[in-house]
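Quick entry between incubations.
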Amino acid sequence: MLKAGWTALALFLTAAGLVIYKVAFAGYGLESIVPVVAYEVRTVIRLEGHDDPVRVRTFLPRSDARQTIRQEEFSSGDLRGSEEFAGDNRRITWSAAAVQGPRTITVSYQAAGRAVRFALPPGLAIPGAESIPPEVRPDLQATRSIQSDAPEVAELLDRIAPPPRTVDGTLRAVADFTHGQLANVPFKGTTDALTALRLLEGSCNGKSRLFVALARRAGLPARLAGGLILAPGTKRTSHQWVEVRVNGIWIPFCPLNGHFAEIPARYLRLYTGDEALFTHSANINFDYSFTTRRLLMGRQALGGNDVPPWASARLWALFGRIGIPLDLLRILIMLPLGAMVTVALRNVVGLRVFGTFLPALIAVACRETGLWWGLLGFGMLLILVGLARFVLDRMNLLHTPKLAVMLTLVILAMIALSATAVAYEIGTLAFISLFPIAVTTLTAERFAIIVEEEGWREAATVSLQTIVGVAACYGVMESPALQSVFLAFPELLLAVIAVDLWLGRWMGLRLVEYRRFAGLLRGRSHA
Amino acid sequence: MRSRPRPAPWTRARRILGINARNLLYVHRLNPRRHFPLADDKVRTKSALQAAGVPVPETLAIFSNLLEVSAAQAALREAEEFVIKPASGRQGGGIVIVAGHDGTHFRRAGGAALPWEDLRRAMGDILFGVHSVGQADRVLVERRIRPHAGLGYLAAMGLPDIRVILLHGIPVMSMMRIPTAASSGRANLHQGALGVAIRLADGEAFRAVLRRRPIDRHPDNGAPLTGFKVPLWDEILDVARRAARALPLPYLGADVVLAADAGPLIMEVNVRPGLEIQNVNGRGLRRPLQRIAGRLHGLVR
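Done. Structure below.
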């Protein structure tokens, strides 16, 4: 008999061997093959005109050494957009002579950032003002909201960083004070440096202005930087942090989140300087939001050309050439992991779930909606279509035609949910239309059968266990770390098969059976 | 009192047969998949058993479509007491017990009127596969079994059955399932029927549970649930053994009923017999199964 155990071991060793070979001998540097986490950012601006001229101005991100921007798309209807460069910033202004009624402007782009960290030269003395180039001089000046000339700022600087001052020592003291000694408060509008100091509290912009004021006071050119912290979801919050010029390089600091001479990959810079992200004409009922989605991209998609000759990046290129997006490759490669998690939940834990691999499939479907909206939408579909089935059952229909009606109802319900979600701006629920229709239909059928044969209680229990399964699959399949590793080393799927084989020979009691046979296990048994 | 120390929980866990072990070691290893329909389809089970001379309930009719059902109204009226069931039903779903005809309507076992339209729709549901594993099904009409007088009050709420688990035709463990008011006359433990452990050696009831809790007396009529001996026990085991040997399914659960006139009959067989019998008997299935397998291999005397 073919031994599952030995086969599993052989597969596992093969996978490990291939990975080791690629890393050790084939020049597979992890950093060159691991895909890049990128984000699709969609800025939606809404306004309402009253037959007056309208002007809206904001900043667009620029590609630089740290961040890459691609696939920009704009739509602004009858508002005309014009772009200009102002210093380091890219500014866009939409305007129209007379606007009547609501308008929507959308800007979307893909952004990928890189985490950077700088080592400050230790003991470097702060250079004199004469060595500062003229174009940077404004970044040493006091302004109305960055009062670096105020006596309180001077006093504070002398207290936390007494002279003689070094660049690294001063910045460390300023960063520690603004991050550690100032209480965090939610954003309440613009806070100037002096107010933040007097109240000993601030949101990102108050803290950053005080940081800049202290740095300027110490003779270091410093400026605000503004942008977004990229995370999946919809929000209105933007962020401000600080850049200080040392040896001709602008070095980032974030006093709110305590980043010292470093900045995480998910910070997207939109502008520098003490600017407002949006300026607009008055009385136009202005509103905006940022919606962010996480993507994985091959490094070459971002313009890098440091791909090793036969890296698995070739696989992406191959898929790319026939027009299959990397996203699909990612789903294909992660689905076996979801299936493995489902197997473990069913046979080791003993969860009772709808369908064989349904939790993994629903988890895939949730990648657009996010887990919670996905589960909520799926639950609503189940109940809606499950209820419809009771009506259909009264009509004594044959099985397949009945399923066809249910499938149509699933689609109608999806469209209705999507339309409602768009109309009322309910999160990402609109993406519910991307759910696998046939799978959803069959699940609704299973749900209705369980309700009929075993009651609502059991159906609810199974639904709950399915939800646990979906969450587990989602956690594994959407984990960026696992995605990166499996995309870089698809041969690890052999190891997944090995685990499946091992689980296939698992004969232990399922966890739920410990409860089922609790009486026997406690030894309340007949001799 | 025994002084022997109680085994540790992990030792006890190894005596319990879980779903994984049952499927891997017994159901799928021993029972060829192509023979599963022999157990899952009662019509096929009955013909295989009858061919081997194993007693089964009398079949009155088998319907494959609604035309046959409609044509059978008069004949069913003649039959008076009968049971309709799906040939490939699950967990007792779709079973209707008819106790007679009062001139205008059929009557249910409880005495309630059952208009022909309702009975016909119940059979239609069976044909459409509502209660079945597959997509469509057949209606099996059997003569209603009257319980053996020796069962006394145990049969007051419905017909009890005796589940015997057999390995290679050798009985491994058994229990009697007794319907209660709570189980609506069904011999289904999950729906609130009583489970009574029956000693294989002499047919004596030694332990009873209701919803996994030990119990001494029938909750509806106070009949004692332990200490009695199942009538015709040797014949019951003999019928179960003959059924197991007549089917190419070495791991099997046989459900035997004790009829008033005909004695033990095989009601149905199950190719994936449930594990709840362990909770009823208060002991695991694993060691008895291993002992039988070992005895057959000549390893253990």
